[in-house]
Design goal:
It is a single chain. The protein is an alpha/beta fold and about 290 residues long. The protein has a domain of about 180 residues. The chain has ten helices and eleven strands. A hairpin with a 5-residue loop joins strand 7 and strand 8. Helix 8 runs parallel beside helix 10. It comes from Emticicia agri. This is DUF115 domain-containing protein.
């Protein structure tokens, strides 16, 4: 009896979530999605975790062979000019805030990009005259909007929206959005670097029982302790981590349905969904 009730509950939940997803797509998504196709069978996604330093030292020759995606503030690093990523994706709405440190990344992109690059942004960002104005003087940067409309429910329905760029999984982290876009571009093999995702190691309580989270990226010289806002408890922090890792589970199944392989080549990573590989052990086929 209990199993029957759980099955009914799950069926109802799937129906409700699917219905909500359809409504969200109809009212929130743009249907004129610009499709970009992969220029190579292989691509690399560069996360900004501290382990990217190690990968760029040990695996640089391999990384340079891949069509690259960069994210967030990679443009403020010397490696941005060296690697010249063909693709760049941002998701955080902080990039719309003129007073936020994210502006350093936009300015670097606008001033340093001397090669053709696709910059993928949520459609909402194109509504900001301030944001769009940052790139008017650089014809090398092509702004390509995408729908960040979260869809859930029946897998077949979610995949139908995914393939057409009308919906996405929840992207608690920008790498989920980037991998999703790389999948839809048609790359056959995707290599992930710098995806440490070791946030749980960074959570601590101070002497007053206040939560503090250390912010750590490969381009920082030292970790920065950030006080978590009041009334934010450990359960909320861990639930956010759950959503981040669950996004990779959704992506793993979606990629598999399309015959696309995602390899986690990060020197350190807690992502367990994708096959873990060492570049030194890969066959010389690329």
């Amino acid at each position: 009896m209990i199993n029957f009730l759980l099955a009914v509950q799950q069926a109802i939940s799937l129906f409700i979530n699917s219905s909500i997803s359809v409504i969200k797509v109809l009212f929130l998504s743009k249907f004129s999605v610009r499709k970009v196709r992969a220029g190579s069978p292989y691509c690399g996604v560069l996360g900004n975790g501290p382990s990217l330093k190690t990968s760029l030292q040990k695996d640089l020759a391999f990384i340079k062979k891949l069509e690259l995606f960069a994210v967030n503030l990679f443009s403020v690093t010397p490696e941005y000019i060296e690697l010249k990523p063909k693709n760049y994706l941002i998701l955080d709405m902080s990039f719309l805030n003129p007073a936020h440190s994210c502006q350093d990344g936009l300015k670097a992109m606008a001033n340093l990009t001397t090669w053709e690059m696709n910059l993928y942004v949520p459609y909402q960002m194109l509504k900001s005259a301030f944001f769009v104005s940052q790139f008017r003087a650089n014809p090398n940067i092509r702004l390509i909007p995408y729908n960040y409309t979260i869809v859930t429910g029946y897998r077949w329905l979610a995949y139908w929206f995914f393939r057409r760029g009308l919906g996405m999984p929840q992207c608690q982290n920008v790498l989920v959005a980037t991998l999703f876009y790389a999948i839809n571009m048609g790359f056959k093999e995707i290599y992930l670097f710098g995806a440490d995702h070791s946030w749980h190691e960074m959570i601590k309580l101070d002497e007053n029982n206040n939560m503090v989270v250390s912010d750590s990226h490969f381009y920082q010289h030292k970790d920065i302790d950030i006080a978590v806002k009041e009334n934010s408890y450990m359960s909320q922090q861990l639930f956010s981590l759950h959503k981040a890792f669950y996004g990779y589970e959704v992506l793993g199944k979606y990629a598999k349905s399309l015959g696309i392989k995602i390899y986690n080549a990060s020197a350190k990573s807690y992502i367990d969904v994708f096959e873990k590989v060492k570049v030194a052990d890969l066959p010389e086929k690329r």
